[in-house]
Amino acid sequence: MAYLENAWYVAGWDDEVPQGGLLSRRLLDKPILFFRDEAGAVKALHGVCPHRYAPLARGTLVDGMIQCGYHGLGFGADGACVHNPFGAPLKNMALRAYPIVERHSAIWIWMGEAERADAALIPDFGFNDPATAWVGKGYLTVKAGYELEIENILDLSHVQFLHPTTLGSDKVSDGHYAWKQEGETIWSNRDIKDEMMTPQLASAMGLVPGTLADRWVYVRWNAPANMAIFAGAVATGRPRDEGRETPTAHLFTPETSRSSHYWYAIAFPKSMGAVGEQMAQEQVDFLRAPFELEDLPMLEDQQANIGNRDFRQMKLGWLPGDAAGARARNLLYARIDAEVGAKSA
Ligand code: FES
Ligand SMILES: [Fe+2]
Fold first, then answer.
1. Can you give the pLDDT at residue 168?
2. pLDDT for the residue numbered 19
3. Nearest ligand 1 atom, CA 56
4. What is the pLDDT of residues 105-163, one digit of tens each?
5. Is 58 in the pocket of ligand 1 (CB under 6 A)?
């Protein structure tokens, strides 16, 4: 399966790569090894030793160098072989190094041509900046392809059916729904009136549980699958600027064509003080249950039914809420096709 390569993907939360430690993760069907250099910057190298294909995750980090755990070849942060216990370093045994940017609590990796890795292309997740926000962070791996995840987040009509006691209510389907494309960004926006939200959702949005509310849920997508939901609520009939908007991040990176990494987060402003810090942790813990116990099993069963077939080629039904996800996938596929075409030209 072809992936979009010239794009920023999330590779992990910033705290998943400790100083002195190694993190091994499969992204886009490639084994990647993450570590920090002596200055603390995250580095990413191809995770397999070119000598006899040993996984470098079985190696060690020695003075900023990755030493293979099999015969001891050593590789610097730029991937060059810098150490050979049996002679001079082997110039033809370099590892691919991937551009990395640490931003907004996440580690971003560029999987394509390194000279095109422009940090300005990373979508804005400034609401997750630990300098200004309390960020509650979670992570799941899902045995379902990332295209199913894109559609799941872009079509929140499912919350009424899949999350009736956690995130949804029967008012969702009566809400006003509209989607739009702004450049390469897709928005999928839902406005729900006179809703009785679950107590946890109400308190996340600063409302006393039991308050009848007007809720807005605006989903933003950028390729490949970097998504945000800007959700807020006010007591029914009150102006929106009286409400609190609570943004969440939903960041997906393919592990394989049939499995995905899912990093999710919820952010509260630092100005809320200790209350905000506590809410960030409580709310991210609350979100884990619907994501893990409701979305994940559904997505994994969808993938099991799809099997190895290419989702892009499958005959699908059509509901009004599918439009945004279909447009997002088409934008993604057009970019993938352009890359594949450029390679074969
Ligand atoms: S496999 Fe890595 S040094 Fe031999
Ligand atoms: Fe869901």
1. 85
2. 96
3. 2
4. 999 999 999 999 999 999 999 999 999 999 999 999 999 999 999 999 999 999 999 99
5. no
Give me 255's structure tokens: 């592990």
Q: For ligand 1, what atom is nearest to the CA of residue 49?
A: 2
From 33, 56, 71, the mutation candidate for ligand 1 (largest count of ligand atoms within 8 A of CB) is 71
Q: What is the pLDDT of residues 3-34, one digit of tens each?
A: 999 999 999 999 999 999 999 999 999 999 99
Distance 3 CA to ligand 1 centre (A): 29
Q: Is 56 in the pocket of ligand 1 (CB under 6 A)?
A: no
State the average pLDDT for the chain. 96
* pTM (predicted TM-score): 0.96
What is the residue type of 226? N
Residue 188 CA to ligand 1 center (angstroms) comes to: 49
Q: What is the pLDDT of residues 295-337, one digit of tens each?
A: 999 999 999 999 999 999 999 999 999 999 999 999 999 999 9
Nearest-angstrom CA–CA distance, 92 and 335: 33
Ligand 2 mean position, distance from CA 138 (Å):
15
Buried b vs exposed e over 61-86: b needs ≥16 C-beta within 10 Å? beeebbbbeeebbbbbbebbbbbeee
Ligand 1 centroid from CA 108, angstroms: 28
Q: Give 163-171's long-range contacts (Cβ < 8 A, gap of 24+).
A: 163/290, 163/294, 163/295, 165/198, 166/198, 166/200, 166/201, 166/286, 166/289, 166/290, 166/294, 167/198, 167/201, 167/290, 169/195, 169/196, 169/197, 169/198, 171/195, 171/196
Q: What is the mean pLDDT of residues 35-57?
A: 97
For the Cβ of 96 lying below 6 angstroms from any atom of ligand 1, the answer is no
Domains contained in the chain, CATH given = 8-121 (2.102.10.10), 126-340 (3.90.380.10)
State in Å: Cα 64 to ligand 1 middle: 18
